Amino acid sequence: MIGDPPPGKSDQHGNPGELIAPGQTYAGITGRITSIPLAKQPPRAWYFGFAIGFALLMMLFLAVTWLLVKGVGIWGINMPVAWGFAIVNFVWWIGIGHAGTFISAILLLLFQQWRTGINRFTEAMTLFAVACAGIFPLLHLGRPWVFWWILPYPDTMGLWPQFRSPLVWDVFAVSTYFTVSLLFWYLGLLPDLASVRDMAETPLKRKIYGFFALGWRGSAAHWQRHQSAYLLLAGLAAPLVLSVHSVVSFDFSVAIVPGWHSTIFPPYFVAGAIFSGFAMVLNIIIPIRKLYRLEGFITTRYLNNMANIMLVTGEMVAYGYLIEAFMAWYSGDKFEEYMMHNRAFGPYGWVFWGLMVLNVAVPQLLWSRRVRTNTVLLFLVAFAINIGMWVERFVIVITSLQRDFMPSAWGMYTPTAWDWATLAGTVGLFLTLLFLFIRFVPMISISETRELVAEPKKIPA
Amino acid sequence: MAQIFNQSANTISRVGILCALLALSGTGWIAAEVFWSPYTTMVGVPREQPVPFSHKHHVDGLGIDCRYCHVSAETSRFAGVPPTDTCMTCHSQLWKQAAMLEPVRQSLATGKAIRWNRVNDLPDFVYFDHSIHVNKGIGCVSCHGQVDQMPLTWKQNTLYMKWCLDCHRAPEKEIRPRDEVFDMKWRKPADQEKAGRELLTAYHVQTSRLTNCSVCHR
Amino acid sequence: MPMNRHDHHPISETEDSGRIDISRIRRRLEEMHGLNYWRSLDEIAGTPEFQDFLHREFPSAASELKDEVSRRHFLKIMGASLALTGMAACTRQPVEKIVPYVKQPPELVPGKPLHYATTALLDGFATGILVTTHEGRPTKIEGNPDHPINLGATTAFGQAMVLDLYDPDRAQTVLNAGKPASWEAFLSVMNLEMRAQREKKGAGLRILSGCVTSPVFHSQMRALLAAFPLAKWCQREPVGLDTVRLGAQIAFGRAVETLYNFEKADVILALDADFLSTHPASLRYARQFSTRRRPDTADGMNRLYVAEPSSSITGAMADHRLSLAAGGIEALASALAHRLGLPGDDGGAGEHGGWIAAVAADLKRAAGRSAVIAGKGQPASVHALVHWINGALGNAGKTVVYTNAFDSELVNGMESLKKLVADIESGSADMLVMLGGNPVYDAPVDIDFSKALEKLKMCVRLGVDENETSRFCHWHIPAAHELESWGDARAFDGTVSITQPLIEPLYGGKTPLELIDALLRQPTRNSYTIVRDYWSAQNLPDFEKTWRKALSDGFIAGTAFETIAVTSAEPARTSNIRPGGGLELVFRPDPSVWDGRFVNNAWLQELPRPFTKLTWDNAALISPALAQREQLQNGDVVELEFRGRTLRIPVWILPGQAENSVTLHLGYGRQKTGRVGTGTGFNAYALRTSDALWFGSGLQIRKTGETYPFSTTQRHFNVEGRDIIREGTWQEFQSDPHFMSARTEPEPGRDDTLYSPDEFKYTGYKWGMSIDLNTCIGCNTCAIACQAENNIPTVGKDQVARGREMHWIRVDAYYRGGLDDPEISHQPVPCMHCENAPCEVVCPVGATVHDDEGLNMQVYNRCIGTRYCSNNCPYKVRRFNFLEFNAGMTSVQKMVKNPDVTVRSRGVMEKCTYCTQRINAARITAEKEDRKIRDGELVTACQAACPAEAIVFGDLNDPASRVSKLRAQPLSYGMLGELNTRPRTSYLGKLRNPNPEMKS
What we know:
The complex is a heterotrimer of chains A (461), B (218) and C (1000). Chain A has 461 residues and is mostly helical. Helix content of chain A is 68%, strand content 0%.
């Protein structure tokens, strides 16, 4: 894992090794963070961002309505490419949803303090990403009203779902992940909601925040239970980080399609997920941090550490690509060989090379600490990685299906305007939820940040 | 500072959680009830007809055999609904003036068919074949119930897929000797299951494939 | 079955107002929506409009119940149309009506289909078909196994005709100057017209029809021409057999027909002759040919040489194919004649000398057991040469037999058409009666037929559809569809086949017989009476019995022409034949829309053309070499200039096309046709002149820079070295029957699977299919037969372009060898019904599952449309309803649907089921009789239609079944077997029989 430089000291590049800017007081922290949700008016930039998100969200409604009216025929999918954007986007969003639980749960269990400033934020992001992901399996059917046939329940037909199908596993994996993430997030939020309640001036706000604070009084008993529950949930969530994307990868690796049927998929997908998750965190945190002047709480140190993680997972993903190509050659399987060749030099070759640039070449910049600590560069790298990870899923889904076993059945895939609208639409949903979150919920964990001030070296018990 | 939750909140929340659980399972239960209730299944609900035809009178009272009207039950997938002139074979002599038979006389005179309301109606993607059931010793009663006791005909069974499967999974429970198929009075013997299994072998019923989807869906 | 005289169609008595009711009903039906639209038939049966319509249309319904003819009454369609399909789902079902008959026709058992034998026509020649009707609705065509031409098979056209019957764009009313009129009004007008004609001995009267072989019609025409001695009858087909007849005339000095017996032929040379698919007897020829392509055939495998300008079905079967300009064929034939000791011109051989020498040697070796055939696209002189060559080889009377001609005197359609137009121009002809046909569209472009029509005083057309020609007619009479008509016709071997109606004319159509009768006498007789009267006068032995037999058989046994001995005229010395230089333009009938008559048939339009896999379009087929020279890509629009006329049309590069030949398929670019055909393709007739009906040199081609989007169903024609299609030579096979399997990697063991290999025991039946690549000629008939049987929707050009065609069985084409002269192999691909089916394990709801007879079933009403199964299908045989492809069908169109097969709605996956509905029907019949299904008792739709008997289906647990035997053959293999899918559909590897003396 990422080793922390001894706190207090600055590294040779002279950037603060501190997890929190010096000179913070309990009251200061509480006041500073609660002031954001309690502010009468959000900054102008907030309106701007929210407007964009909302507009895209409306486009999503339009695209979905048309889909329900006409059917999946409005998309670019066909025979042989029967899976298209819906699946690509699903996997992409689920992946993004990984950073949150990773940071909050795994780092917590590993006693990494540098999660404090960002965990709240990433957990929220996780929830929204999984929400976006969750839409796609439904839309993918074109007839969402029959989705529940996948669920096991005693029906009038005396039938059960087919448990051999990875799609059934997906349902359980994703829904579990969402539930646990939601609980984890809310549990962590309780003390802070209480703080907001206490800082609120108007009775209405007091009532609302008070309601959600579930009567938190901050008594020792509360804290004791809170901490144990928090750890327990962390223990629950940690394996989920690994399981969810492993299960999602089964959708592919269980199939016989060349380019899907591969045992490396689970680890390779999980690494990719965390890779993209952190990229998304950075893409959001860097502007917000600037906008709300939170450099004091989200110090460069956080960015540096996250960049390190991206670097590591990025190398794992690159290794995955390498092994895929190697196995295609080493297996001596003519279908695998052709698949790899087609990926690199077939009609979608340019997409593949784009992927190599975005996901393999660009992240190498992170070796340089200057890049890791330069917000602008870091933002750009993270952005490239986000695009890259989407492209990766496109390459896996499309180029594998496009030319599989029967040359006579080979085809092409061209996304339609509706495909793009649905993708952009979910981005809109994500942004909308995100902006509502930073407007009304303390986006940095007050209580945990205060712990940093109290005894920087103490670990949460 | 002011608390909006007082002590009672704990109790309230506990009760609340309990209620939530109850509500959840409750809705499930209600849904199931609705699905299995006569409102949806129409089981036991006498169906209005243009002519109030009484199976009770014709079958039980007069002892007319099913096949007199449902001619193709043994030969076709469709048991057959009697054409108007079948009714008129008798009713040109009996009850010639009866008002309730006016639609029948009309039909014959004008050549316009009588439009009955279907009682036993399977979804269109289900391919049920009367002849094979009849030929393999499944009695009319097994699906249609004691039609001879129905003044106005109603649906005896849900005709849900589960109901079909119950029998297709264990046909020995329902199968009867071929020549008893149309007998309304036939009752299952005490050793039905045993006798049933013998009949199954006697009639070469391939029980293994009765639950294959392709048996009913095409 | 006894036929009753009463087949009189009431519309002729009543006002035609009944028709207005129909349109109202149709409108009402179109308002009805919902997945359960099939119910609308029952619902509609009750609407007062409909009842009124019925009772005005069929007042006689009550009076004629005892007779079998009444089965055809429209009323019966409406009666008890119960188990009609449609995907109605979900909780509370609406109350359905059940509509019994008032009086039930005795032969009809509701729920049981009936089959009747009748006749289908193409260019006047009969083929025998069996029609399946459900409660009075014709829904499916099969070949008549007893008919001497069909031998049980059908053509793609035969399969598709049932769709034409329900075509909503059919002519539906008698039109006078474009306004609705009545048949009676027409009759009274004709009365006057004919009286006028009678005075001048019919000098002004002309009848224009297609080629007619019907004895009844001929007798009528004799009567007509007797009554009007100066009247003239012109028989003409746009793609007729003129050249064939003229050739025979030259060779034998008299009109004869030529009939081949390829079963006896060891060596066959086809000169631009597509005898396997576009000949009137092609069904029979294909059967004969295929019996000699099977590796286990007794008399050894035959060898086929083909020389042709552009790839044809026959060419693809050749062991040696020479792509040669159509204009070069005559030189080749002449050179061949020379080598066979006939007065020929050897100079014409050119660079093909070696080829010709080898062929000549091979033919000589097989003298008396060889056959040479020329195509109708070749001039009479070539046909004459071929006759002489066959004579010289001693094939006459053995592999080639001659019979009397259909018409005693020579019929030359082109000449009589010219004469007709001349007469009209000169004013000597003033009244024209057209029986079908569309000369305004398909007459040679140098003959201005429409101008001639405008000169006429009286012009009448009888036609099933309104087309370019109708516009110029004073009277347009809706014709009865073949499935609505009484009539007769001769098959190519002369056998008289009877046409009997399966359904009362939907729109009160008339038959040609009735129209001619109306010209002769009034009151008119109905066609049933006409046909029966004629044949009862033919002093057949025990008429009643013969007649009934004829009606149930579909043909009159023993009416085939007797073979005659012909004495050939002195072979003319053909001298110095040289093909015209430069580019050559070749015309061919389109494989799907023929001469244009099928352009409104969606099944045929969407049927992928052989080789190109084009749908919904025709193209200018060019050779790769020409494409290179002119820098052309598929879809580039070019301007063709031919004899002063031009046509803009996109090109398609066809490997195997003769370098300097450009082939145009006729029949597209129609101006006036129905909703389906309008705006499809490009009109090749615009370049077709009377002096170059089939080909001509002097073509100019110019690239315009525009491009045009084509829709094809196959984009990649290279097998990429995969073990998908196995090929070899007969010589290899003889040395080692197992040579193929020796080449390929073995299948994995049965247990190499995660799941229990014994999950299914297959103790009862074990269904399997074997497809013989040696005999498959790639004619696509299986695909369209499957479409008709399984309610497969058409999706339209745009959806095909997106890769969403729905055919359950497709015919893949793979090219091998050089671009200019590749070997082409066809491979029909239905569902493989794998024993370890990859699709089954991935479906989350178990909508595609195995049954214990090995069927891989698709349960439509359980499918939620994840499409995972399709991804995991290595054969990509699954089809998905991306949109509601059955939307917007009119009530009449819906009648074509097979009630035994569910109509799939949007969002549902579907695929080949091995015709599970037929399996179930057969099983139920068998089980009721407490027996097993007999081998051959149960055939799938594709199998039944296949002219070459390449598809065999049956029980693999029965060692005696044909399919088991085929599986045991050394050539048998399972496609992509290395994936351990254990396919139930297996193939027999393709063997060719090359001439060792010939390289390539």
